[in-house]
Amino acid sequence: MSPLTILRIEKLKTFGNVAGSDDHVTRNRETPNADPTRENVRLIGGEDERALEEIVKEKIATLLHRPRHDAVLCTEMFLSASPEYFRPKDPSLSGQWSDSLMQQWAIASRDWLAQNYGSKCVRAELHLDESTPHIHAYIVPLNEKTGRVSHDAMFGGRGGQGRIKLSKLQDSYAAALAPLGIERGVKGSKATHTKVKEYYQAVNSEPLTAVITNNQLAPTNFESARNYVARIQSDDQFQAINHQLADRAFMQERLERAEQRARASEKERQRLEEIVRSLELKTQQLRDLALEDVAWELGLNCDRTHQSRWKGHGHIINIDGPKFYDFAPDQQKGSGGAIDLVMHVNNCNVRQAVVWLHERFGEAGAIGAAIAKAKTVTAEIIQTEPRPQFAPPVEDKSKWTAVHNYLTQKRGIPENFVELLHKRGLVYADDQQNAVFVMRNLGLYPQAIGAFLRGTRGENNTFKGYEKGTKRREGWFHFHLGGQPTDPVEKVVLLKSPIDAVSFAMLEYQRLGDVPPNRTLYMAVDNPKSLPVEQLQNIPNVQVAFDSDDSGNAAARVVKELLPQAKRIKCKAADWNQQLLDYGQQLRQQQQQQQEQEQEQDDELSL
């Protein structure tokens, strides 16, 4: 079984309690179970030989307020580990341990005390004169912000919040000892040493002890071994021993399994609590610092007559939530946020204010203040900065013939449909001889908010891309066929590019011999992240006609998750434009064969 951490705290509410505890720890009082030949070690506070009571009084005297009559003046903390750590070979050897293991534990515990409590930990005594090494540490629970002693603020009081603080304290100590192989005990366990002892006493109780001392089970004179064994096995008390040993083995096995499950649950709990702490830290970083705390760190004092007003360094600052206003005659300025407050009082720039906050509130506090400042600046920019408007590429009519020939001859799109798209303003030529496919929103009166460009100049032009300023999440190249303009859309076909969208529509037109009977929307969506889910989720027939390669299949799966009614449509060729070209070639071959047959028939008739 892995060794466990041990941490207990005790409240010392009177200076008499402090003195009494000090007498016990320093062995000024007789301690029967202590070995006088062993010497204890003072880990913290060794340079101060005064009585603990005097040290605590001096600490409390630095506070602004005297302690209440029921206040905790000092907190005694007991630290140790289970015997399995100090004497791994035989934990039962009381008073013995490995010096190297003991020293590693003592150093880790001392460092943990110093890191967590600093000068508030006025003394820590390592006891080596009892059965197992342990530490008595004394912490004065100072709260600088309130100017009082507060055990509850540091360690938690009664109720749920107190239990949470104590649990986090146990977690913190266990984390410090984890490199030594020492684990935290099961959280919330009700087990005690007394109960464990009682359990084993019950296991070893009657009838086992009575059976062992019962002379009736002794062999008789001249009794053979065979008869003796038979007599013993049939004896009721012997059967009781067997049952008890079986029960003991069963209970021991159940106990070990329960401990294993508890350890696994505890590790999982610690892992989840670490995630929660990480999320809490991130949440803290998203919040600005309380301006009251910043004002206190800046050296300002709260006006007792006006709790929201802070004075000092020539300032009279009223704090109202995240905002402040300086009423001093030569200031008369208001703003908001921790960074602005530091800049105002310290008369410094943003960078200096962030560094100052980091020194007082740590990295999380500085980041939180910086994020809050960034949010404020961002909100101001959003409210005041004009929105950039999309400027479509300038049309060059002299280049249209070349673009027209590219779309009809190289891409196989019927000439009448190319002209129809051109007249509707959905495709035109720019000064670089690019085919400009206009991208629009899906409103009742679609507006151009982007453009997709396809290069046409030269034999092997592969240029394609979006015009600068295009809003890819808000606009798409799309057009309708079938039905009436006022009819609701009953079918949507999603394709990867404008040329694919046109090619698919022409394939359907040629297959049907006419436009689709119902209102159909063809649109180019090159990535599922730009899919207008809200506008398409109520359309009953959605066809996903992306390419049949791995990328197209992956994108189709995402679309089907977003639009469960969607159906996958795959093309036979590399893409839909290639399938249109192949279909056109087949038609030309069929027409040529038909012409040849007609010519043969004419030749036969002429003979």
TrEMBL record:
What's one Pfam family here? Answer: Mob_Pre
Provide the residue span(s) of the region labelled Disordered.
586-607
Q: Domain named DUF3991: which ranges?
A: 405-483
Which InterPro entries does this UniProt record tie to the protein? DUF3991 (IPR025054), Mob_Pre (IPR001668)
Q: Where is the composition biased (Acidic residues)?
A: 597-607
In what ranges is there compositional bias, type Low complexity? 586-596
GO MF, one term, reads: DNA binding
Q: By its UniProt entry, which CDD domains does this protein fall under? A: MobM_relaxase (cd17242)
Keyword RNA-binding assigned to the entry: answer is no
Domain of life of the native organism? Bacteria
Instruction: List GO BP terms, alphabetically.
Output: DNA recombination
Q: Where are the coiled-coil regions?
A: 241-289
Q: Which UniProt keywords apply?
A: Coiled coil
Q: Which family does it belong to?
A: Belongs to the plasmid mobilization pre family.
Quote the protein name from its UniProt record: Plasmid recombination enzyme
